Amino acid sequence: MSDFRLCDNGHYFPQTLENCPYCPKPTSKGGSGQTALGNKNNDESGTQGNLARTQIFGGNQPKDDGGFPNLNIPKSQGGGGGGNLNRTQIFSGNNSFPDFGGGFASPQQFQPELGSQGRKMVGWLVSFTIDALGIDYKLYEGRNLIGSDDGCDIPVNDDAVSSRHLTILHRMGQFKFKDEFSTNGTFINDVFMEEGNLKDGDMIRIGDTIFKFRSIA
């Protein structure tokens, strides 16, 4: 052991060395015995960053204001490709909303269906000629225009139906109808009629389309 000596920290090292190779190197500032992290971005305290708080680092650098960064989570790991942890988001397990990066559901998907221009629903027209399984159209307070034009309240894809064929009006608890000078006319319970009142269960035929009228008013 004559070729070795003991340092103040209890390490044996060769006498040919001036300092113990196992002890921490002193800093360049006063030799206080503290070690610095070898990084060119070290601050005056010899440490990098703020170790007094927890930070989360994703694919991007953290924000300058110290907030959470946008984590680039791959879609293969169930992420949407770029979520934001600064707000709560709704995640869709089937990744079916591409407008939100494939992983976040659009808020519009949870909006309830509203009535037509804020009007109260007062009845239905039900047809089995348009769809053999049945299809229904809602009737609202006021004027309901039926025709082959897409701008009608109830558009009907029927070549025998005029662009503006029939109006059903609900006013003061009563349903009235008026043929709008259509080419093939309007039939109520198989009777040709230009205008009149509707009662629950009436059958309405315009062109090759038949509706059953149902009232809830």
Your description of this structure?
There is one protein chain. This protein is mostly beta strands. It is built from no helices and 15 strands. The chain has a six-stranded antiparallel beta sheet, with no helix packed on it. The chain has a five-stranded mixed beta sheet with strand order 8-7-9-10-13, with no helix packed on it. Strand 11 (186-188) and strand 12 form a beta hairpin. The N and C termini lie far apart (108 Å).
Produce the secondary structure layout:
Elements: E1 4-6, E2 12-14, E3 70-71, E4 83-84, E5 121-127, E6 135-140, E7 142-147, E8 154-155, E9 166-171, E10 174-179, E11 186-188, E12 191-192, E13 195-198, E14 203-206, E15 209-215
What keyword list fits this structure?
single chain; about 220 residues; mainly beta; 6-stranded antiparallel β-sheet; 5-stranded mixed β-sheet; about 0% helix
